[in-house]
Amino acid sequence: MYQHALPNSEHFRFTNGHNNVPNKNTINGSTYTNGHVGTADGPETTEADTSGSGRMRKSLEGRGSTQNDSIHLKRRVGLFSGVALIVGTMIGSGIFVSPSGLLVRTGSVGVSFLIWLACGLLSLLGALSYAELGTMNTSSGAEWAYFMDAFGPAPAFLFSWVSTLVLKPSQMAIICLSFAQYAVEAFVSECDPPISVIKMVALLAVIMILFVNCYSVDLGMAVQNIFTAAKLVAVLIVICGGAYKLAQGNVQHLTNAFNNPAPSVGAVATAFYTGLWAYDGWNNLNYVTEEIQNPSKNLPRSIIIGIPLVTLCYALINISYLAAMSPIEMIESEAVAVTFGNRILGALAWLMPLSVTVSTFGSANGTLFAAGRLCFAASREGHLLDILSYVHVRRLTPAPGLIFHNLREQ
To answer: Contact at 8 Å (CB) between 278 and 60?
Structure first.
């Protein structure tokens, strides 16, 4: 295990996770070898924490390197965190802002509802296939690791570059811009918010999420768990509001769900494309397989719990929307959840824009958490820059990979 130390820096020493050749370097009187820290004249000892920040900081940073303990990413993602990562990245802003895409393409409430359920079933089947792959190959990186096993390094190399340079950064940027849009609109009511302000808030969100994930894996997962729980509360508010309207007898938009003409095959295909985009994120847990506690059990369990939960939320939210507004009103609304809140929640209508900001922030956090592991895993095999495979020696986070992704987003 080779450990690289930055000169005159105690808090940012990184270790490369793919070279097993012992190596020693002496810097400022200390010897660095195989991921351990010791003095030049004596036996290697555990690095002392002189920061004086207390137990809270130590618990977030991890135990640090100990003698004969190689530096690598620790297994800190449990079952609850695994479910939170799946649910938190799948439920973004779409179901709150523009869930009417399927209605536009099918022209039928009943057909669109069936497609929502079918997309959830397809996502579950794909995720279960990934669960089997993830238990057979416990390397992080999801598709990259599976391409390496099935087709060799060339397809894996191309996937890692396209995902790292284009797909993941652009996805993260879009989510953060959506977060900034609704966060700024909460303070600007008489006119549209300036684009420059929205971009600045999005940049601050990106930096904040980067700091959280570089500082500690435990802190990153705690943020993910909290924001996922908060967005599920927002979903529950919408469902309860819809149930209230249904109890009042507002079922006119649901009783004749299949009366419209059947959509064409092309319309159904494009509707599936839109629906599957809403379920994007079902594979994110496979990007962090190396950090899952007992992956042979917790990986499939997280998938079996998470994806049906998202499917149920999507189905009930659409029913709730149709209990409060007509299909045409859903299609014409710029933000369906906001319109729903204005009609149902009254003075608490501000909860819906807040729900969108909470949902997008949690989704962005989970997206960066997963994307950094892809960068780390691919770099470890030489498919990206070697420095991107380094792990912080005490906090045990893939900080260079996370920073690289953030730079690409900006």
So the answer is: no
What is the rounded average pLDDT of the residues 282-300?
A: 93
Provide the whole-model pTM. Answer: 0.81
Read off the tokens for 353: 């824009």
Q: Could you write out the DSSP letters of every residue in 273-325?
A: HHHHHHTTTTTGGGGGGGGBSSHHHHHHHHHHHHHHHHHHHHHHHHHHHHHHS
Read off the tokens for 278.
């809403």
Contact 282, 127 (CB under 8 A): yes
Q: What CA–CA distance (Å, rounded) separates 375 from 398? A: 9
User: Any idea which residue has 């498919």 for tokens?
Assistant: 383
Please answer whether residues 391 and 15 qualify as being in contact, where contact means their C-beta atoms are separated by less than 8 angstroms: yes
Q: What is the mean pLDDT of residues 101-130?
A: 92
Cβ atoms of residues 20 and 1 within 8 Å: yes
Pair type for strands 14-16 and 24-27: unpaired
Closest CA to 285 of 73, 74, 147, 86: 86
Residue-wise pLDDT tens digits, 371-401: 999 999 999 889 988 898 888 888 889 999 8
The closest alpha carbon to 164, from 142, 182, 139, 189, belongs to 142
DSSP conformation letters of 4-46: E--TT-SS--EEESS--S--EEEETTEEEETTEEEESSS-EEP
pLDDT tens for 101-111 read 888 888 889 99
